[in-house]
Write a structure and sequence with these properties.
The two termini are about 45 Å apart. Helix content is about 25%, strand content about 50%. The chain has about 450 residues and is an alpha+beta fold. A hairpin with a 2-residue loop joins strand 10 and strand 11. The protein has seven helices and 18 strands. The protein folds into two domains: about 150 residues, Tetratricopeptide repeat domain (Serine Threonine Protein Phosphatase 5, Tetratricopeptide repeat, Alpha Horseshoe), CATH 1.25.40; about 280 residues, Porin.
Length: about 450
């Protein structure tokens, strides 16, 4: 980016002022600025150029040289200002467009830079600038291609990994603990809690195209005072997968055992199959079906929850450089033993549909904000029989639940983060004792290996 020295034509009279002494002085400062810039004394050069401008010199060369000096100092925002002023000149417009492209490259705005270079290529009057602009576009596209190839290579390396694992720890407050059954019964109790979760996946056979994975997970919740709601869950399973064209198919089974308080709670055997479709870079869709067989393990306190549960879910994921969007739709059908307390009856077999929309934004490569909003509709299979106003009544339970979550995370590395999360749930029902509000706030720490 060379400097322009127009001192040899200093006899040109600026239109803004006709005083010959001022004209001479302005040109002298301009010449001093060029000399200082050639000695790489850019701050001194800027002072001389600005003095020349204050004294009436207003030329394309002056604007250009000011832009160059700020560019050399790494003050790219000020450089943009002077190059944008140079756009007023029809003769220097191609040069201004080209230098706006160069400056935006330095600012990391490659997309904007390409637009300036394209405009410089279309501008008439300077073939050399057109050639340079075309060259810069080729350089940027080559760099982008190299970046994409590097990411693809990293993905290939990642896909060839055989072991994945992760851990997460949460601490928070729940103002209305829900019983972990199909009725989401509100306890009305609030308490501080701690949670942990850990998972591992190991490719026992095959590669990234086909194979067999072994999986394991454990998670639990412990309350400060409400220990009757403490829950521990251990899960393990196996799944076989195959990738064909843009699809990944998977079929597998898992088993799960849990405790509630100090007692055994439920055992779940799950069978599932899924199909994942790669649509375009950063965009995938997932369709999954699962069948759960639920057993109370001989604990008579929970036999009313025995039975089966079927789920069909569709998920769509879209991710670009700084944003990620998730759309989920679920259908769930339960067929449980239910609870009969003659002459009363309470259904624990809901049919549910839910829709969830979540989106994340990453700022400055370190801060991540997230939002999630969800809606769930539930209708239970059989009518509840209950006492109301001294008479037995029959009514099918119907619920609507709206949920909202907000998160703010700090990304220590690509695989380690801390997050502050706030969530709110509001459930309305045609049974007043099933209506509730629930709010949680938590701080979590997460690491993937």
């Amino acid at each position: 980016m060379p400097l322009h020295n127009y001192a040899q034509v200093s006899s040109t009279t600026p239109q803004a002022n006709t005083d010959s002494s001022i004209k001479k002085s302005a040109n002298d400062f301009f010449t001093l600025g060029v000399h200082a810039a050639r000695q790489q004394n850019y701050e001194e050069a800027i002072q001389h150029f600005r003095q020349a401008r204050r004294m009436g010199k207003d030329s394309d060369a002056l604007l250009y040289n000011l832009g160059v000096c700020f560019y050399k100092l790494g003050d790219y925002k000020n450089a943009l200002t002077w190059f944008e002023l140079l756009l007023r000149s029809q003769d220097s417009r191609p040069l201004a467009l080209y230098n706006l492209g160069l400056t935006n490259v330095k600012l990391g705005n490659e997309v904007i830079a390409v637009r300036w270079f394209q405009r410089a290529m279309k501008a008439k009057g300077n073939k050399k600038v057109q050639m340079l602009a075309a060259q810069q576009i080729r350089i940027l596209y080559a760099a982008k291609k190299s970046e994409v190839e590097e990411k693809q290579n990293l993905k290939t390396v990642e896909s060839n990994r055989s072991l994945f694992a992760g851990v997460r720890v949460d601490f928070g407050w729940d103002d209305n603990i829900l019983l972990p059954d199909e009725n989401d019964n509100p306890s009305g109790e609030g308490d501080a809690f701690g949670q942990y979760s850990a998972w591992v996946k190991w490719r026992a056979i095959g590669d990234h195209k086909w194979g067999v994975n072994l999986r394991g997970a454990a998670y639990g919740t412990a309350y400060d005072n409400a220990s009757d709601f403490d829950r521990q869950v251990i899960n393990g399973g196996v799944a076989s997968y195959v990738r064909w064209n843009q699809w990944t198919y998977e079929i597998g089974l898992s088993t799960e055992n849990s405790t509630l308080g100090a007692a055994d709670y439920l055992g779940v055997s799950q069978y599932f199959l899924s199909a994942r479709k790669f649509i375009k870079p950063g965009s995938t869709a997932l369709l999954k079906y699962s069948f759960d067989n639920i057993d109370a393990g001989g604990n008579s306190d929970f036999t009313y929850l025995e039975g089966n549960r079927q789920r069909i879910s569709f998920s769509y994921y879209n991710k670009n450089e700084n944003h990620r969007y998730i759309l989920k739709y679920n259908i769930e059908k339960n067929s449980r033993a239910d609870r009969t307390l003659d002459p009363y009856f309470f259904s624990y077999s809901p049919f549910r549909q839910s829709l969830t929309l979540a989106w994340e934004q990453t700022w400055y490569d370190r801060i991540q904000t997230s939002q999630e909003i969800g809606y769930r509709y539930s209708q239970h299979r059989d009518a509840n029989i209950f006492l109301e106003n001294g008479q037995l009544e029959r009514r099918h339970r119907k619920d609507d639940r709206v949920s909202l979550q907000l998160g703010l995370a700090w990304l220590f590395t690509e695989n380690m983060s801390a997050e502050l999360r706030v969530s709110a749930n509001s459930n309305s029902s045609n049974f007043s004792f099933y209506e509730y509000e629930q709010n949680q706030v938590s701080l979590s720490f997460k690491a993937n290996l």
